[in-house]
Design goal:
seven-stranded antiparallel β-sheet, 187 residues, 3 helices, alpha+beta, 15 strands, disordered N terminus
């Protein structure tokens, strides 16, 4: 478990936070008072857990930042996907502090490791959604590389009447060569 506050905006804030972290103190990260972008949270969590940023995924929707609140992210390591729980411990103005913990056991394990570009998953999911929603959406998935873990859920967005919608795309089959996905609109 990592208990750390995180630097955000300016490089000066990052330098101060780094000095405080080295001194064993908590650092603060300026952030929106009520939410933060999932990519920003993922990068911050990755730094606090000392993982490369591309291994952490916190979804596609803005993450509410509330003292005592939690967020769920994922850590993908080689052939296993772990749940990461982020607990916001303090929110003051535009700064927040959090604790991040990685589950001891993986949510899923790749029988045969592999991954595919997020764009390829988006195209396949769009084909799966088209008959149900009446058009082929232009999906954009959060991950550049999607692990081919049966049961892995990727959240993708697409513009449509009424704004931006979210589709959950689940890897339903992976045989080491070919894969399939299912998709459903969740908002």
């Amino acid at each position: 478990m990592s208990a750390r506050s995180v630097p955000l905006a300016a490089s000066a804030a990052f330098a101060v936070a780094a000095l405080l972290a080295l001194a064993g103190c908590a650092a603060s990260r300026p952030a929106p008072a009520t939410s933060t972008r999932p990519a920003d949270l993922a990068a911050t969590v990755a730094r606090s857990l000392t993982y490369p940023a591309q291994l952490i995924d916190c979804g596609v929707r803005k993450v509410p930042v509330v003292a005592g609140g939690t967020a769920r992210c994922r850590l993908t390591e080689v052939d296993e996907v772990y749940a990461v729980t982020v607990r916001f411990s303090k929110v003051t103005g535009t700064s927040y502090a959090f604790d991040a913990s990685v589950a001891k056991k993986p949510e899923s394990t790749l029988k045969r490791p592999g991954s595919v570009r997020g764009e390829a998953v988006a195209q396949l999911a769009a084909q799966a959604l088209a008959p149900r929603i009446g058009f082929t959406p232009q999906l954009a998935c959060a991950d550049r590389q999607v692990p081919l873990t049966v049961g892995f859920v990727e959240r993708c967005t697409f513009p449509a009447e009424g704004g931006t919608h979210v589709a959950e795309v689940t890897v339903s089959r992976w045989d080491g060569t070919d894969y399939s996905v299912t998709a459903k609109v969740v908002s």
